[in-house]
Amino acid sequence: EVQLVESGGGLVQAGGSLRLSCAASGFTFDDYTIGWFRQAPEKEREAVSCISYSDDDPYYADSVKGRFTISRDNAKNMAYLQMNNLEPEDTAVYYCAAQNIRPTPLLVKLWALSGLGDWGQGTQVTVSS
Q1: Alpha-carbon gap, residue 34 to 21, rounded angstroms
Q2: Rounded mean pLDDT of the chain?
Q3: In this model, does residue 74 exceed pLDDT 90?
Q4: Among residues 8, 66, 80, 102, which is most buried (max CB within 10 A)?
C-alpha cells in the first residue's frame, strides 16, 4: 500500500521558517518524482515545488523561489520542504505527492489540476502577520 505522510506544519509568524517532511512507503521511492502542493481556503490547489528521482533541476513556483528549498533522501524514502521567510500568503494545507513524471513546469501544473498519482493527507501551515 502506497503511503505518503506529511509532518512539520504549524503556526509561525511572518518571516519565520518551517521544515516539512514527507515519509513515503509502499513503492520504489527513487523511481518517482515527489511534489509539494498547497491549497488555501477557496483557492485552487497549486504546485509549490517538485523534485525528480535524480534531484536535477527542481521545479519551484515563482511565489516561493528563493525562499523554499526542496530535497529528498532516497536512502530514507524521505522528502523535505524547507520554507524560509514565510509570508501570510503561504498559509495553506500542504500536501506531498508522488508520480512517475518529469517535473517540467507544464506537467507539474497539470499534476496539480488533475490530482493524479498518490497523495498524503496534508499538513496545515499557518503564517500570522
Answers
A1: 11
A2: 95
A3: yes
A4: 80
Which residues partner with 78 through β-bridges? 23, 73
b/e per residue, 75-109, with b = 16+ CB within 10 A? eebebbbebeebeeebbbbbbbbbbebebeeebbe
Minimal CA–CA distance to 97: which of 79, 83, 124, 75?
79
For residue 118, what pLDDT is reported? 93
Are 20 and 123 in contact by the 8 Å Cβ rule? The answer is yes
Q: What residues are paired with 125 via a beta bridge?
A: 10, 92
pLDDT at residue 16 tops 80? yes
Q: Cell triple for residue 104?
A: 517540467
- Express each pLDDT in 96-120 by its tens digit: 999 998 899 999 999 999 999 999 9
Considering only CA atoms, which of 128, 20, 14, 109 is closest in space to residue 69?
20
Closest CA to 98 of 54, 37, 55, 46: 37
